[in-house]
């Protein structure tokens, strides 16, 4: 046991006693060391990563490669502190061996800068490079090969990692003594490994840190280490995790909550779609029709809810650089960038800059998507009896049915707070912050009602409140780029309830074509005439499609419906499960991160399931989608 004098040398308090007691009780450990560093252990877990900062020539950034893990110790390499630190490591390892029968101690350090290949002088050309150092007792158990395989998966950009391994009497940085000798480790049941990492994230000439390179390496390396720890746990301990991601960080530190709160507060200050939706759409349509569709309409918008400069100032108070978890750090950084662009958009509403910012947020229309949209418009005749209904439902009837659907969801999640509002300042229906907004001029065919409910409530309202049930607000405000997947999933729900009609698919194609015309420089009148004259849409329908695309100065968002549908179809064809898409407002690129966070216990299963998932017909249709079908195959004649 560490003597009081040695303990105080390390921390000034009985750190080892606290660490051992909390570990035996399976409680999280997070203790700051006064000289420099801290020990962080999420829970009982059979490994500890260590980094000792050299007393001279310490380069910035290497310690962050360790702090990504669920169990780590970062500390000073000062010679006078090593005896106390060795006792801290030994005492921690003793408890882990008690719990699991064995534990792995991995010390990380950076290789000298002159080990980088001289011919590769630019950062973009550097490949990650690792040297595994196994103590001779550890190298005989096959763990070295597992480490090599896991680290071989690491990539930086397109460069694959170079990995080598050596066996040595000790595994520690040059100039430092081992914190635990190989013989002591063997007698305790510990495996000792060292990992020397080439500092490709810093300039060899100036020592300048390259943050983006470090972040990329940190995330990839963290996943690789989890794979190696998983192999160790399964083969050498009594702990048998279900998945390698379960060995990742579970505890969420204060910095994460600070960032999440500040980003959500910034997002909640405005609603982008409300800010760029005309408040005079109905009046503009009547005036446009009186001009015989010859005069470009003038649209009016809501006043800006806050000063954009203040919004951005508050946004960038979020300390995203302090987040240690690389998975969370990446999604929060993306969201910060997206909110920044959204604020700029509402500031530039009605100017030529708005369109360019819209392209940055929602993308443009590529040739493949445009060709698909044109094929749909040409294959499906403009006049169809499909979807015809004996009656139209007004706003009060729509609101009543919507209330019933929300109550169905509330039965699964009683704390759900969604509501329905009939308003004069919206067109059609839209969801804002978990509430359904219904235009007081709305008319919906009875045959479209179920599809409308599942699109708006079974998808947009549901994912908002599933997101609210999660620990992070970003799951309901929406992760960066979530619009395409949201709309694609919403259109899929129409198909699953038998409501994706041929006219509806034609309408989605028309939105893509209108966006393409906008990007090619067509005027409002020119686009309207193409939709009404060339493609045969009714005057009002052509006007609404054109208005949606030209609002604010040019909004490319309406192309995401068809693009998102393609993404969802591909996802299902590849064996993807719908439950991951319903957890909140996410993009397809976030699905691996969401799965990781679910395995780690940071997120939990969504509490609300849409009504259509209970229908026997849904599984039959999903089986059909898994077999791979085109968008046109979704249309079933009835």
Explain the overall architecture.
- This protein is of the alpha/beta class and 638 residues long.
- The protein has a domain of 245 residues: Aminopeptidase (3-Layer(aba) Sandwich), CATH 3.40.630.
- 46% of the residues lie in helices and 11% in strands.
- The protein contains 24 helices and 15 strands.
- A hairpin with a 4-residue loop joins strand 1 and strand 2.
- Helix 15 crosses helix 17.
- It is elongated, with a radius of gyration of 29 Å.
- The chain starts with a helix and ends in a 12-residue tail after the last helix.
Identify the notable features of this structure and list them briefly.
single chain, 638 residues, alpha/beta, Aminopeptidase, three-stranded mixed beta sheet, 24 helices, 46% helix, 11% strand, disordered N terminus
Layout of SSEs?
Elements: H1 4-10, H2 15-24, E1 29-32, E2 37-41, E3 47-53, E4 71-76, H3 82-100, E5 103-110, E6 129-135, H4 143-151, E7 155-156, E8 159-160, E9 162-168, H5 182-188, E10 190-197, H6 211-236, H7 254-268, H8 272-275, H9 281-290, H10 308-315, H11 326-347, H12 353-362, H13 367-379, E11 392-393, H14 395-412, E12 420-423, E13 429-432, E14 435-439, E15 444-445, H15 449-468, H16 474-477, H17 483-496, H18 502-519, H19 524-534, H20 539-550, H21 560-573, H22 578-581, H23 591-600, H24 616-626
Helix pairs in contact: 1-3, 2-3, 4-6, 7-10, 7-11, 10-11, 11-12, 13-18, 14-15, 15-17, 17-21, 18-19, 18-20, 19-20
């Amino acid at each position: 046991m560490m003597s009081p004098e040695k303990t105080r040398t390390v921390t000034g308090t009985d750190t080892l006693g606290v660490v051992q007691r909390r570990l035996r009780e399976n409680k999280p450990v997070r203790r700051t060391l006064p000289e420099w560093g801290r020990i962080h252990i999420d829970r009982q877990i059979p490994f500890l990563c260590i980094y000792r900062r050299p007393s001279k020539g310490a380069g910035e950034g290497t310690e962050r490669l360790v702090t990504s893990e669920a169990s780590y110790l970062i500390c000073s390499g000062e010679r006078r502190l090593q005896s106390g630190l060795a006792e801290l490591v030994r005492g921690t390892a003793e408890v882990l061996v008690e719990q699991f029968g064995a534990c792995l101690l991995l010390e990380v350090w950076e290789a000298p800068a002159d080990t980088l290949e001289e011919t590769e002088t630019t950062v973009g050309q550097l490949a990650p490079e690792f040297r595994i150092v196994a103590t001779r007792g550890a190298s005989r158990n096959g763990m070295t090969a597992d480490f090599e395989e896991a680290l071989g998966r690491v990539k930086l950009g397109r460069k694959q990692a170079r990995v080598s391994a050596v066996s040595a009497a000790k595994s520690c940085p040059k100039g430092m003594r081992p914190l635990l000798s190989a013989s002591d480790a063997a007698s305790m049941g510990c495996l000792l490994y060292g990992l020397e990492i080439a500092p490709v994230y810093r300039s060899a000439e100036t020592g300048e840190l390259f943050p983006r390179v470090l972040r990329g390496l940190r995330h990839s390396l963290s996943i690789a280490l989890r794979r190696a720890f998983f192999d160790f746990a399964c083969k050498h301990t009594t702990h048998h995790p279900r998945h390698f991601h379960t060995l990742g960080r579970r505890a969420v530190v204060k910095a994460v909550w600070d960032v999440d709160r500040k980003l959500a507060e910034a997002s909640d200050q405005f609603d982008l779609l409300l800010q760029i939706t005309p408040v005079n759409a109905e009046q503009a349509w009547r005036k446009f029709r009186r001009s015989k569709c010859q005069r470009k309409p003038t649209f009016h918008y809501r006043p800006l809810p806050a000063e954009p400069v203040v919004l951005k100032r508050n946004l960038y108070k979020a300390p995203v650089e302090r987040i240690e978890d690389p998975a969370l750090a990446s999604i929060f950084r993306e969201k910060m960038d997206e909110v920044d662009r959204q604020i700029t958009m509402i500031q530039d509403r009605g100017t030529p800059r708005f369109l360019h910012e819209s392209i940055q947020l929602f993308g443009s229309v590529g040739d493949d998507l445009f060709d698909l949209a044109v094929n749909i418009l040409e294959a499906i005749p403009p006049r169809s009896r499909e979807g015809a209904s004996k009656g139209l439902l007004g706003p009060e009837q729509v609101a009543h049915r919507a209330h019933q659907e929300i109550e169905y969801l509330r039965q699964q999640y009683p704390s759900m707070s969604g509501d329905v509002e009939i308003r004069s300042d919206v067109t059609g229906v839209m969801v804002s912050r978990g509430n359904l907004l219904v235009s007081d001029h709305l008319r919906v065919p009875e045959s479209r009602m179920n599809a409308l409910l599942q699109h708006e409530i079974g998808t947009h309202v549901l994912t908002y409140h599933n997101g609210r049930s999660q620990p992070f607000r970003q799951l309901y405000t929406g992760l960066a780029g979530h619009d395409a997947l949201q709309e694609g999933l919403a259109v899929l729900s129409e198909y699953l309830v038998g409501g994706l009609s041929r006219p509806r698919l034609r309408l989605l194609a028309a939105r893509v074509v209108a966006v393409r015309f906008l990007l090619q420089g067509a005027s409002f009148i020119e686009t309207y005439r193409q939709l009404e004259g060339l493609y045969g849409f009714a005057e009002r329908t052509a006007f609404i499609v054109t208005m949606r695309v030209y609002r604010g100065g040019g909004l490319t968002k309406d192309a995401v419906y068809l693009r998102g549908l393609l993404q969802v179809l591909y996802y299902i064809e590849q064996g993807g499960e719908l439950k991951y898409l319903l957890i909140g407002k996410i993009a397809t690129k976030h699905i691996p991160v969401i799965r990781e966070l679910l395995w780690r216990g940071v997120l939990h299963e969504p509490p609300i399931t849409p009504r259509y998932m209970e229908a026997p017909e849904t599984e039959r249709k999903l089986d059909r989608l898994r077999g791979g079908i085109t968008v046109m195959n979704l249309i079933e004649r009835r």
